[in-house]
Give the backbone structure.
Amino acid sequence: MSDIQSFRESVRAFIAEHAPKSLYGARRGRFDGYWGGRKAQPEPDVKRWFEAALERRLIAPTWPQEFGGGGLSRDHVLVWEEELTALALPPPLVGVGLTMIGPTLLDYGTEQQKREHLPRIVRGEVRWAQGYSEPGAGSDLASLSTRAVREGDDFIINGQKIWTTHADKSDFIFALVRTNTQVKKQLGITFILIDMETPGVSTRPIDLISGWSPFCETFFDNVRVSAKNVVGNVDAGWTVAKALLGYERSMIGEAMSSELDGAERTLVARARQALGAAAGPLPDPDLRRNIAELAMDVETFAFAVDRLRQTVQEGHKPGAESSTLKVVGSDLKQRRWELGVRVAGPDGLGWEGPSYDAADLKTTREWLRSRANTIEGGTSEIQLNIIAKQVLGLGGGKP
Ligand SMILES: Cc1cc2nc3c(=O)[nH]c(=O)nc-3n(C[C@H](O)[C@H](O)[C@H](O)COP(=O)(O)OP(=O)(O)OC[C@H]3O[C@@H](n4cnc5c(N)ncnc54)[C@H](O)[C@@H]3O)c2cc1C
């Protein structure tokens, strides 16, 4: 038996022994995983699943063991992810600690920053938020104006971030702040880690049309932060910020690929119900073609995601190419839920009440949520500009 096969056997045995039955299939509903953090109050089964995976070093499987990771290869991690997906089991821990700031600290953090933060992410003790966007700096992120002024060994930070996902539930935020106003805007930015409990940090939630409100405004009012919390060099945060965006966009692409897996089966089953066609080809040829096109594009997308994953395993950092996954994945997610609403017919816009089943309600909310896919992590227009300039070398950019 190959090493990978025997690893698969051991993962299956681990899941059979430790995954609570209540979590089987949970990913098909609205449970996206446990986020951890100081304020977390997980259900007993969720906690049990997390603790078992922590013990087995499966929380951050590719990270070095000295920081609490599993030290596994991407091929092994793929097996772990495939086995979770097959049972629609949620990962034991999710969040931007694992997918964004952790990998960035591994690349750019000081030894002290790695030792302080990485094991706490793995143990689920600290939940992270991303403090990039500001009211005057979204697509044009380098225009950000949250100010950090040096005072001895510290920085004093003043300003505002916006669209900070789950800031009110987070313990730490990685933020971009302006430390120099006398140079080209990209050259005066610093990447800094801020404890949300520091005096002067406050958050205010923002409501969304989907009825789900993860967003906050985050305010900094004379917040004192040690210069030891700067990642990379002062005024050189733009490089760190862009590297993190590479991780963010590949993470979004991978997450979308796994969420879209098997979408056509659900759509066909729902269409059969709605059209009263238990077997044979769906009687609506237009719908049939749209579902088939989606299924083929989802499959091709999964290959592209796998290919990027392979190159990352070979030591390549996800760069501008991750923008292609972000653009295509967002488009597929929106097509998938447009079709979901179409197939559900009059039930496709159900919001609440006994006449709608759980699948109808999920469809409406996911359709609304998918509007944000082409905005979060950088809009599709911005990704297309990046691809044109940095991947294809058009308009004076370098491929
Ligand atoms: C679900 C979700 C979660 C998010 N989470 C976070 C978070 O945790 N932390 C955080 O910091 N931010 C977060 N954001 C914010 C996100 O990064 C910004 O919304 C995004 O970068 C766009 O910025 P903006 O909203 O200011 O839009 P704008 O930049 O004002 O853009 C408006 C429109 O103009 C277009 N446009 C702008 N410039 C160009 C150009 N040069 N060429 C072509 N078209 C252009 C855009 O594509 C867009 O359609 C989140 C957003 C969403 C939707």
The mean pLDDT is 92. The chain has eleven helices and eight strands.
